């Protein structure tokens, strides 16, 4: 039985998807990711190929990309271009991937991607919005207590 990855174009007998050590290790890393990220990561890897290309992503490159992504998602903090350091959550990366897929679907994504820069920027933006919302909630709670009965 033969299979083709719909995202990276790798074509092989099914055993080939697990026989090459780097692909096997990449799958293990992908499966460590929380929530919807494993499913989304496979699609994300396809964005590192030139549209219409029949070339498959080589195992070492796939392993490098998913390992970098795992490390970004697993880091306790997120930062972008010298901005403030914010708490990190997997949901920011999920939101980032969703936004990238929307950009790709509307033709506003330049492919192939070279690295995780765009995803990092979007995830940081999500973290920044969440931090701002948290600060507003604290300020509102503080002002409510100050104005309330007492």
What would your notes on this structure say?
With 150 residues, the protein is mainly alpha-helical. It is 59% helix and 7% strand. It has six helices and four strands; from the N terminus they run E-E-H-H-H-H-E-E-H-H. The protein has helices at 16-19, 21-32, 37-46, 59-74, 90-105, 117-147; strands spanning 2-4, 11-13, 77-78, 86-87. Strands 1-2 form a two-stranded antiparallel ribbon. A two-stranded antiparallel sheet has the order 3-4. Helix 5 packs across helix 6 (117-147).
Measured between the Cα atoms of the first and last residue, the distance is 74 Å
Number of helices: 6
* Global Rg: 19 Å
Strand adjacency order, main sheet? 1-2
Overall body shape: elongated
Number of strands: 4
Helix content: 55-70%
State the low-pLDDT regions, or none: none
Proportion of β residues? Answer: 5-15%
The assigned structural class equals: mainly alpha
Order of helices and strands: EEHHHHEEHH
Main sheet summary: 2 strands, antiparallel
Average pLDDT confidence is: 88
Quick structural overview:
This protein is mainly alpha-helical. It is built from six helices and four strands; from the N terminus they run E-E-H-H-H-H-E-E-H-H. It has helices spanning 16-19, 21-32, 37-46, 59-74, 90-105, 117-147; strands spanning 2-4, 11-13, 77-78, 86-87.
Tags for this model:
150 residues, mainly alpha, two-stranded antiparallel ribbon, 6 helices
Topology of helices and strands:
Elements: E1 2-4, E2 11-13, H1 16-19, H2 21-32, H3 37-46, H4 59-74, E3 77-78, E4 86-87, H5 90-105, H6 117-147
Antiparallel strand pairs: 1-2, 3-4
Helix pairs in contact: 2-4, 3-5, 5-6
């Amino acid at each position: 039985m033969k299979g083709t990855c719909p995202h990276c174009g790798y074509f092989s007998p099914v055993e080939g998807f697990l026989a090459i050590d780097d692909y096997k290790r990449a799958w293990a890393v992908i499966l460590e990711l929380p929530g919807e990220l494993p499913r989304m990561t496979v699609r994300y890897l396809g964005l590192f190929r030139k549209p219409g290309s029949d070339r498959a992503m080589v195992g070492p490159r796939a392993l490098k990309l998913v390992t970098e992504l795992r490390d970004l998602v697993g880091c306790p903090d997120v930062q972008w271009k010298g901005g403030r350091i914010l708490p990190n959550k997997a949901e920011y990366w999920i939101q980032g991937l969703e936004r990238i897929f929307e950009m790709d679907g509307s033709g506003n994504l330049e492919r192939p991607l070279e690295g995780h820069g765009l995803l990092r920027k979007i995830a940081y933006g999500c973290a920044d919005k969440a931090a701002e919302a948290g600060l507003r909630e604290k300020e509102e709670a503080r002002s409510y207590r100050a104005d309330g009965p007492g």
